[in-house]
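Input set for joint prediction.
Command: fold jointly, output tokens.
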Amino acid sequence: MNVIPLFLGLDSSTQSLKASVIDDQFKVVAEFAVNFDADLPAFKTQGGVHKSADGLTVTSPPQLWVAALDLLFERMKAARFPFAQVVAVSGSGQQHGSVFFKKNARTALQHLKPGLTLFEQTRDLFSVDASPIWMDSSTTSQCRALETALGGPQAVADLTGSRAFERFTGNQIAKIVQTRRPAYEETGRIALVSSFIASLLIGDHAPIDVSDGSGMNLMDIRNKSWARRALESTAPGLESRLGPLAASHSVAGRIHAWFTGRYGFSPDCQVIVFSGDNPCSLAGLRLQKAGDVAISLGTSDTLFATLSDPKPSASEGHIFASPVDPAGYMAMIVYKNGSLTREDVRNRVVGGSWEKFAAALAQTQPGNGGHIGFFIKEPEITPPILKTGIHRFDAHDKPLARFSPEVEVRAVVEGQFLSMRLHSAHVGIQPAMILATGGASVEPGILRIMSDVFGVPVFTADKPNSAALGAAYRALHGWLCQKQGKFVPFAEALTGAPPFLRTMEPDLRAHAVYSEMMNRYEMLEKKVIET
Ligand code: XUL
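tokens >
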């Protein structure tokens, strides 16, 4: 009898640990989840984290993530999940978070004891019991110090793919060195959340992959190796504590005997190196060629793209090494003003109705008669605009106090996509297609403007667990590369995966109108930033 091979994708995110399992026909055959607050109340987290009184320091106990792994596998076992069929596991971790292992941790991981849970036997392995995570913003002084040492924000972006950011791991490590020197001295290895979970699975230190490693302000984005100057400016003796970097499709090791004994995994089950959640989402959305773009329209809008010639910017987004192509890159640009800002306009001018919002879009023309608006309801990330407010301009660039309801509705949507077109071009993204995801991607009127502004077809995908699914795809990809003894292009490994729905074709006349508007949009944006 032929047994169907299964691929397990784990996603250790901020609030939960999830598993998605696919078969070799790319079908999701099982999903499991553990919610940190609800299922592991003893850790007393809120939204999976602990916050300082001033809100700046945000951490999670690393043992929470261990307990979650124990519980997830117990739940899978209770559901009679066929562990023996899993030929490869990979995973996704919330980006930037770090785990500090004591010097003796490696031996303990190698000798996991069958009679004890992972939780019971990892108690004494951590030199820092509160792992800094991506929501932490307490390291501004460390960021400025790194920028000063390396020659300014743009120099840090040119070297590492992003300017210094508070949540990026290197700056978090610098803070630990400065505030908890003995703990740092006790540390033998620093893992990311992604490589931490992989380490538990293989019973050894698993490497950090180059894609998640790009979120540390420590990696040379071109060579995909540790950037010595950044390491030296961050902490003494850092390179040996970080260990080697690995290609995202490489094998971290075989699953440890502890998992074969307790759950019935095959001893041949491969663990493919884990990566960050945004890289795994990119894999889950199957962006692989330069020009493949995904726009997620959620609480914040996020644009992901695959690109071959990145232009790192100090003010626009991040460049990471691609998680699916050793020669490629991905860009990620985040906008704080997403769904909440669209909904604010909907509530203020069309009585809270999406039907009326769509009708207003239908009543107005592409280009909005020259009207351009900037809706900064929340301090904006791209470009950085801290002061909130709405700025409206007529066709002659004259500021206006208000627009008509229909013009206001079109202005908020057009403004968001014009901004994405402008800033994505700055970092080297040249879209050939866009995959729209997230709540607002069900609105045809919004997708119409997305397609016309960029002049490319829009596809739609409903992928709520794209990071876990992407991890499962990456497990399959890495397993295939290992089996064939060479790098197999991700697209080839995923041949046969269900196609996305081609939803919208660009109207080239409308696209020409938007292209014509770009210079004015850029000039007005500068004006808004200056005020
Ligand atoms: C990315 C970021 C978050 C985390 C958690 O830079 O900080 O998206 O990866 O999801």
